[in-house]
Amino acid sequence: MSGRFAPKPAPTRTTTRGGDLDVPSERPDLGLTLGPLRRGPHDPTFRVTPTGEIWRASRTPDGPGTVRVRAHGGEVTADTWGPGAAWLDDHLPALLGAEDDPTAFVPRHKLVLATHRRRPGLRLTRTGLVLESLIPSVLEQKVTTTEAYGSWRTLVRQYGEPAPGPAPEGLYVMPDARTWARIPSWEWHRANVDGKRAATIVRAARVAPRLEEAALMEPAEARRRLELIPGIGPWTSAETIQRSNGAPDEVTTGDLHLPGIVGWALAGDRTADDAAMLELLAPYAGQRHRAARLILLSGRTPPRRAPRFAPNDIRAL
């Protein structure tokens, strides 16, 4: 089974955005803003060129589409192709953080303040697309990022389709919901995805229209909608809604590393759990996700004592 096809040519749409994307640095930092959408250095849906252009391939409600974004001074120029071009163009401001309000954030710690000043172009992206963030988040459940990125890459290349337009070679649009739901069990295994994660993705794909509605909901309501699916818990719903809804307060809980990183950065406590992390982030109520991102961007992490989590290749079983 393969979802590949030769897309029909579509006219190029070019949009220039300037004043509505102003940040203290007078330009958005595309890498910081769109970086969370990239699933590893070889993500087939995301490409950064040596000149700093960012290419993304998405499956929109109108079909597959490609967007290329470039920053020039205080402006961002975007070109879009494919059946989803108009949808991507309409959602470009949100994608680049125009709906985000960084002025609502008040640093409460010296480390956070210093990072905030060094990263003035950070905006929180809002894609408006749930499934494209949910599926790779499910793949990242309880495995190393290397394993998850490899599985995402394998499945998108096998069941997705080449991105429309003059996209770089190897850029793909992820499969549609129907294709995700019909991937055979042995192909999940070949992609190094265990049965539990595969079943969660299949369940989500079967109710994709209902899940996509969450992109228009308030973040807390959106997370409840996602968590109705067995296999989707607080970690996965937060990771998804942060991207699809641009949610500044949806901090990730249940993560193996984040509580210790936040605890170490703000209190010198590498043993912090979720409860301690949330207490430390309480002064940032309404902006806890942004605070956590700035802490991660600070680079201040606790010294490693335990060995790294060993990858588990189920394909050898």
Automatic annotation (TrEMBL):
SUPFAM superfamilies: DNA-glycosylase. The lineage of its organism: Bacteria, Bacillati, Actinomycetota, Actinomycetes, Kitasatosporales. Residues 1-49 are annotated as: Disordered. This is DNA-3-methyladenine glycosylase 2 family protein. The keyword DNA repair applies. Keywords: DNA damage, DNA repair.
